[in-house]
Amino acid sequence: MSSSDRTAKIWKTDGTLVKTLISNEAVIGVDCRGEYIATGGKDNQVKLWHIDGTFIKDLKQHDSAIRDIAMSSDGLMVASASVDRTVKLWKRNQHLLKPLYEHKDTIWDIATSPDGKLFATVSEDNTLKLWHTDGKLWQTVEQPQSSFRAVIFSPDSRFMVTGSNNYTVQLWDVSNRDQSPVKLLRTFKGHQATVFALAIAPNSKIIATGGDDRTIKIWNLDGKLLHNIQAHKERIGGLAFSRDGQLLVSSSQDGTVKLWQADGKPVKTLTHSKAACWGVAFSPQGNFIASVCQDRNLKLWKLDGTLLKTIQTERENLTEITFSPDGQIIAIGSLDSQVELWSLEGKLLKSLPGNQGWVMALAFTADGKFLISGGDDRTVILWDIKKILHVNELEYACDWVRDYLRTNLEVEERDRPNGTLREHSLCP
């Protein structure tokens, strides 16, 4: 139900009010199909909402008020009719990427289970969400008094570790996939500020944590603090263990990336950057380290700390980095909404422009088929890497614009699919 009071209301069939959707101007058109609601009105925008009333995004192309809205039965297409004398068709991209809209605030971290069955996301909305790798939500863990900031699965996929802004680290049992909610095993206390970074040794017996108190803490699974490292001068944003568990690497907003022995003894400082360093990772084969700072540079290092290669990107504010499971692709995220895929030789393979805000988290699924991203636009995106890397760009583009070319009044007849001059049409 829509109204000139700038609201649309969701009701049950028995007349119970479920949710009030608030817009900037009078809401005139509304339609609902499956999991989504679309509204339009005097603000000239189509607004998309989840069925529970969570706002997803604005679609801005009309020049005047929108008088009516209609959605296709599968919810993948929206038609909007406006006073500007146009009807516009909007189509959700379901071929190369799959957006998930369950979170209500910034997504801080993403982790995938090594057994390939689950991935986890944590958000400023005080929730941890566990998903099946096809994007189906399995369960939500709420933490009302604090917000999760980091998450990681153990190498054996039997447990999960989270870090929070209440200064705690929590260990969760995820070995029973029929159990809901997941079981909290224990809470580690010792940090004096928000925990942003986590790493688990390959033997699944040692946990490394770091964050705003600038220390790295090494724990066993019983919660015993084994080592306390005064590591950096600013927030620690990234941690990773080497494949053999003998080395630990950390990155910080103080502009340094540092290499440590597993017992906390310093090995070497890899870089001194004038910009904050967020992302760091060991290659899956364990033969080198990759790091990104907010200076456009992706750097590859040997395990002895020798610089192997510097790849200069066009992205000034790099935030995240992760390797594909086969170690052949490096994915990086940035504050300008971009995700990029790079080869080890320094070749840009693809740019993925689907996020609408800062990219704060990246993770490949265990089989390497999907890359998962998230950030401050509240959306989790599953990217189909195989299709993206092997897509026929002309064919894909034609599939994407075919409806537009067929229906837009400003397109000449010769440029329409199946037009009278088909041999000259943009897309056959």
TrEMBL record:
Keywords from the named record: Repeat, WD repeat
Keyword Zinc-finger: no
Coiled coil stretches, renumbered: none
InterPro entries: WD40/YVTN_repeat-like_dom_sf, WD40_PAC1, WD40_repeat_CS, WD40_repeat_dom_sf, WD40_rpt, WD_LIS1/nudF_dynein_reg
Membrane-spanning ranges: none
Highest taxon in the source lineage: Bacteria
Keyword Oxidoreductase (UniProt): no
Pfam families registered for this protein in UniProt: WD40
WD repeats, residue ranges: 34-52, 59-91, 100-131, 141-182, 188-222, 229-261, 270-304, 311-345, 352-386
PANTHER family: WD REPEAT-CONTAINING PROTEIN POP1
Name by which UniProt lists this protein: WD-40 repeat protein
Gene source species: Planktothrix tepida PCC 9214
